[in-house]
């Protein structure tokens, strides 16, 4: 087992307020003054990370993600618990902090690398790499105030990642610069990870989570709500967001034998009764389908309460969790109105399997409008799983079968 | 304490380039550049000299030299300037750098050190300019001027200790900053800088006796104008107070450190 780089044990941080500032001052000198109010921003957080592991912290605003990052970075002191770091931490909590607008890019590198504790000799060594990575060319020796915000971000990112740290802490900055630079910075982080840097980051982009992380911690009200592999936690989080809007909270998850994770949430005013994938011609249920086969997906919903509108949405995902396709009956203008208790609604989705070989899943959602935030009747992630095999088409790779034909002429 | 100093030493490059940044920010894109550092205080002294000496006819007792009053004024104001510069900047430095403090982990004591450094450089530039002006008045340097570094040391220790202490309080209660603004005004006028010590009425002398800035400013005035060595017996009290404040501010800083960022 590789060595532990970051060890966080029972960490908690409370922000206290006192009756007056005088009592606060007195407490510094050992007088027994009780704070009047304590607010725990994070509490009972424990995890350990090994070299080369990547952990994402997700959660709603105010869940304590940034506080936790600041505790690990060391700008905030934890009230209880222990944080042990084995190696050098580099934190990118905000890009461009500590830059002086009157300095040139080069001088700012010296300034902000100094802020990271590097000596001038060390900076002399890494400055060519920074100049190269930031791609500022002639702007590198011009004052920062003439930079565009994207250029500033590029410089800041280059500085922050100039030396490979043992732990890299990133707070939602992967969205800097143009998409070219985003890719470049993402690659840089991935490179670090391969070289053994432990990565800890906060993001709201679930695709970043899936692309980079081995592990995700979901924080809610300062506590760990869920800690596990990305698909499990992300699906749980999505279900949770839906349920936040719908007062009756109920999220169930179970890992099925084939490895797909089933997440069910909703208030069940309308519920999923059955979901069957059938061959269109034979009307028989199938679990393995051929590329190019005509299929019908039949969903029966039972109505448990009088509801004004019912919308069915589908998401088709591949094995890695990427959404291959998705739409809903709101977009197709086929909303069903005024349903009464006891009604049953049948939905048929007819389609040709133009998918590449592999395992796929359908996630149906019974909702009342365009999004699942308004009324989430029932949402089941990965409710139906099926395999696609290629029997009669030429070999191809990828998740889509394009029915493409080569035309070759030789002259 | 030792760790704090080691950390500061490790971050010396940051302190150095930040001081350069502070100075540069103040003169950025102005034609006269560094000259503004000294033009401001000199202009202020000139105004006081003109108004008080020429218009109101203020004169220093026992000296008949026409240049004596401006020299007196400039010496005192240089000393006071150093004091108020360090104090005012230390007072606000944590608030000013709040986002950096919140997001980057570095020895926080760097900040007042940056203030101290840039104030010292300012002050030395000003002193050099003053020397030029003095030469213009025909007032040549004397051996007593070598006592000025002692004045700089005592004044900046005093200002630093007080500034850091109040700066920490200011993070928690912003009123401190407002109050100090007023207090500094009053303090300036209670210290014999624009007027000579001798004209203070007898029944108010006690105010000057307890005012620690009086002997400190006096070092400058004695050395630069009267060519006298300071009366060292008046200096031990300010020295002790300055040292204790300085030490106390370190202790306070260590105690308050963890909570400082919480409330920023």
Short description:
The complex is a heterodimer of chains A (411) and B (264). Chain A is an alpha+beta fold and 411 residues long.
Q: Mean of the pLDDT scores of chain A?
A: 83
Largest sheet of chain A: 9 strands, mixed
- The total number of structural domains of chain B is 1
Helix fraction bin of chain A = 10-25%
Order of SSEs of chain B: HHHHHHHHHHH
Query: What is the overall number of helices of chain A?
Result: 8
The main sheet of chain B comes to: none
Quick one: overall form of chain A? globular
The CATH architecture name of one domain in chain A reads Distorted Sandwich
Fourth CATH level, the homologous superfamily of one domain in chain A: abc- transporter (atp binding component) like domain
Pfam family, one (chain A): Wzt_C
GO molecular function (chain A): ABC-type transporter activity; ATP binding; ATP hydrolysis activity
Keywords (chain A): ATP-binding, Nucleotide-binding, Transport
Organism (chain A): Sporotomaculum syntrophicum
What's the layout of helices and strands?
The complex is a heterodimer of chains A (411) and B (264).
Chain A: E1 4-17, H1 21-28, E2 37-50, E3 54-58, H2 65-73, E4 80-85, E5 89-92, H3 105-115, H4 120-134, H5 149-160, E6 167-171, H6 179-194, E7 198-202, H7 206-212, E8 215-220, E9 223-228, H8 230-245, E10 251-255, E11 261-265, E12 270-279, E13 288-290, E14 294-303, E15 307-318, E16 323-328, E17 336-339, E18 344-352, E19 358-367, E20 376-381, E21 384-389
Parallel strand pairs in A: 3-7, 3-8, 5-6, 6-7, 13-21
Antiparallel strand pairs in A: 1-2, 1-4, 8-9, 10-11, 11-20, 12-14, 14-18, 15-16, 15-17, 15-19, 19-20, 19-21
Chain B: H1 2-10, H2 12-27, H3 35-55, H4 68-96, H5 98-103, H6 110-136, H7 148-172, H8 175-190, H9 205-210, H10 213-226, H11 236-263
Helix pairs in contact in B: 2-6, 3-4, 3-6, 4-6, 4-7, 4-8, 4-10, 7-10, 7-11
GO molecular function, one term (chain B): ABC-type transporter activity
Keywords (chain B): Cell membrane, Membrane, Transmembrane, Transmembrane helix, Transport
Subcellular location (chain B): Cell membrane
């Amino acid at each position: 087992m590789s060595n532990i780089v970051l060890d966080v044990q029972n960490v908690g941080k409370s922000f206290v307020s006192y009756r007056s500032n005088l009592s606060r001052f007195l407490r510094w000198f050992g007088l027994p003054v009780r704070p009047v109010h304590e607010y725990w921003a994070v509490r009972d957080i424990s995890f350990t990370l090994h070299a080369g592991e990547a952990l994402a912290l997700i959660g709603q605003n105010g869940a304590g993600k940034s506080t936790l990052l600041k505790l690990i970075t060391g700008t905030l002191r934890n009230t209880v618990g222990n944080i042990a770091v084995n190696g050098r931490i580099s934190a990118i909590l905000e890009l461009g902090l500590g830059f002086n607008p009157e300095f040139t890019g080069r001088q700012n590198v010296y300034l902000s690398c100094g802020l990271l504790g590097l000596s001038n000799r060390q900076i002399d060594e890494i400055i060519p790499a920074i100049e190269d990575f930031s791609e500022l060319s002639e702007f590198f020796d011009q004052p920062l105030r003439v930079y565009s915000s994207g250029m500033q971000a590029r410089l800041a990112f280059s500085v922050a990642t100039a030396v490979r740290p043992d732990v890299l802490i990133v707070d939602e900055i992967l969205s800097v610069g143009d998409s070219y630079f985003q890719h470049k910075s993402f690659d840089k982080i991935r490179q670090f990870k391969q070289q053994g840097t432990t990565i800890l980051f906060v993001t709201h982009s679930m695709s970043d989570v899936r692309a980079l992380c081995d592990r995700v911690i979901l924080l809610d009200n300062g506590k760990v709500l869920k800690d596990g592999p990305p698909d499990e936690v992300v699906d749980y989080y999505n279900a949770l967001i839906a349920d936040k809007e719908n007062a009756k909270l109920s999220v169930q998850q179970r890992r099925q034998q084939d490895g797909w994770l089933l997440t069910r949430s909703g208030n069940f005013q309308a519920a999923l009764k059955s979901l069957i994938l059938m061959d269109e011609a034979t009307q028989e249920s199938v679990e393995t389908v051929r590329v190019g086969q005509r299929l019908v997906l039949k969903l029966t919903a039972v109505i448990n309460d009088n509801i004004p509108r019912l919308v069915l949405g589908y998401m088709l995902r591949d094995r890695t969790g990427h959404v291959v396709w998705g739409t809903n009956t709101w977009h197709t203008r086929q909303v069903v109105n005024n349903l009464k208790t006891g009604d049953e609604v049948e939905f048929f989705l007819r389609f040709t399997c133009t998918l590449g070989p592999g395992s796929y899943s359908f996630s149906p959602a019974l909702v009342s409008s365009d999004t699942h935030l308004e009324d989430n009747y029932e949402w089941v992630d990965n409710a139906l799983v099926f395999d696609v095999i290629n029997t009669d088409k030429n070999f191809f790779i990828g998740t889509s079968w394009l029915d493409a034909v080569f035309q070759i002429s030789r002259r | 304490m030792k760790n704090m100093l080691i950390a500061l030493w490790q971050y010396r490059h940051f302190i150095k380039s930040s001081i350069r940044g502070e100075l540069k920010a103040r003169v950025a894109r102005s034609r006269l550049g560094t000259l503004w550092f000294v033009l401001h205080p000199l202009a202020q002294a000139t105004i006081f000299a003109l108004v008080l000496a020429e218009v109101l006819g203020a004169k220093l007792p026992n000296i008949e030299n026409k240049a004596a009053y401006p020299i007196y004024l400039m010496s005192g104001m240089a000393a006071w300037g150093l004091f108020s510069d360090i104090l005012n900047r230390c007072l606000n430095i944590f608030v000013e750098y709040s986002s950096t403090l919140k997001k980057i982990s570095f020895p926080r004591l760097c900040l007042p050190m940056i203030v101290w450094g840039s104030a010292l450089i300012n002050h030395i530039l000003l002193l050099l300019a003053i020397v030029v002006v003095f030469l213009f008045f025909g007032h040549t340097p004397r051996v007593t001027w070598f006592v000025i570094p002692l004045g700089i040391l005592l004044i900046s220790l005093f200002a630093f200790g007080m500034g850091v202490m109040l700066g920490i309080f200011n993070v928690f209660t912003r009123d401190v900053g407002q109050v100090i603004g007023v207090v500094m005004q009053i303090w300036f006028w209670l210290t014999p800088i624009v007027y000579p010590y001798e004209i203070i009425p007898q029944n108010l002398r006690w105010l000057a006796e307890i005012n620690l800035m009086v002997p400190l400013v006096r070092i400058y005035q004695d050395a630069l104008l009267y060519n006298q060595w300071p009366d060292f017996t008046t200096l031990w009290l300010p020295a002790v107070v300055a040292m204790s404040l300085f030490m106390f501010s370190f202790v306070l800083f260590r105690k308050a450190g963890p909570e400082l960022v919480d409330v920023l």
